[in-house]
């Protein structure tokens, strides 16, 4: 395995870092405070080609790969984890399943609009009573002539309401369990599709998380993704890659917290010397830096395996598990290094700490990642 960045990836990393620091970071604290999503930032990402990084040019992408994609999510999350997940949900969760399972017509239409950033995407799997236990979902899709009729509620949907296109999973056969779920592409504005509660959250507050409501919502058969009954496989295989996007988000948050804490520890003077001169602080920084590097290697490994067309599901669950837990530990330590100032909104580390928590919860809680890894080891 060789994770050396190519010249193209080095250029992309530099470009995204400049964009993140100049265009995203300045408003990050304010957007967090106001729980405000900024579509202009998404449009700027589209102009830079970030919305279609891994997809071929014929589908509106820039023809790069998953390594470039995780680098972009990492760099955005280093300054604003909400912006990181906007891109991650858009690319990994909304666009990937169309690239993988869509017909040519769906790729030229839906994927092209997502890749070029003309449309923003979202992925709707979870329900009030079906989070970890996906197959217990109750949203239904009933065949009716050339359409399906959707009924039910989805909750916690990232990019909800602001997205233009939703990958929605529903039961077409209630008795067939895993084999009775089907995936659909649903566009905003479809009659019978509306939005419910917007969550008020601990972290990633400028990423909207919204309920979707389907009431006799008629979806043309042309919008069915894959075959009837293939939805569970589509959902799970989408998450195989999506989880590495969240690992990249966690890695970016952790790197941001480490950078801030290192700078502060060198500048803050107590007892006549910088606090970094105390072994108690420098050992903390050493542990944080080591965990950041380990998280990066696992994240890049999963992206590299996917880029090579090799099996990456286990690697991706491992990267998400490790990077999420590491980001939580690292951001807590960063707040500690800042002392009382770290507990205030004068510095970004309290935001990093609040944002880190979600990386242990969504795209499968870290308990579920352990379940996935354990099953793969023992099957
Ligand atoms: N790829 C393809 N097929 C898969 C698969 C995969 N990764 N994982 C499982 N399958 C297949 C199995 O092979 C099995 O097929 P057969 O019946 O033919 O043998 C079938 O699916 C059922 O598999 P399981 O028995 O493993 O299913 P389960 O009901 O025990 O559930 C689970 C497994 C891993 C717990 C799954 O329900 C799960 O991942 N839960 C977590 C849900 C989740 O991650 N939600 C995230 C929502 S998106 C989000 O949160 C967005 C965001 O952050 C921005
Ligand atoms: P539950 O499944 O009820 O779990 C509760 C607790 O029990 C957890 O600690 C869990 O780990 C544990 N647990 C459950 N089962 C087991 C088990 N078998 N073994 C051990 N422990 C177990 N979903 C989408 O579909 N699309 C999105 O875009 C999306 N974005 C989200 C954004 C945010 C901010 C949040 C908070 C959630 C989002 N989700 C999204 C939903 C997310 O994926 C779920 O919250 C997550 O999968 C957990 O489901 P749950 O909340 O119902 O918890």
From TrEMBL:
Known cofactor(s): FAD
Acyl-CoA dehydrogenase/oxidase N-terminal domain boundaries: 6-118
Positions of the Acyl-CoA dehydrogenase/oxidase C-terminal domain: 229-377
Record's keyword annotation contains Acyltransferase: no
InterPro entries: Acyl-CoA_DH_CS (IPR006089), Acyl-CoA_Oxase/DH_mid-dom (IPR006091), Acyl-CoA_Oxase/DH_mid-dom_sf (IPR046373), AcylCo_DH-like_C (IPR036250), AcylCo_DH/oxidase_C (IPR009075), AcylCoA_DH/ox_N (IPR013786), AcylCoA_DH/ox_N_sf (IPR037069), AcylCoA_DH/oxidase_NM_dom_sf (IPR009100)
Annotated ranges, domain Acyl-CoA oxidase/dehydrogenase middle: 122-217
Keyword set, alphabetical order: FAD, Flavoprotein, Oxidoreductase
Keyword Transcription: no
PANTHER family: ACYL-COA DEHYDROGENASE
Sequence similarity: Belongs to the acyl-CoA dehydrogenase family.
Protein name: Acyl-CoA dehydrogenase
Species assigned in the record: Virgibacillus dokdonensis
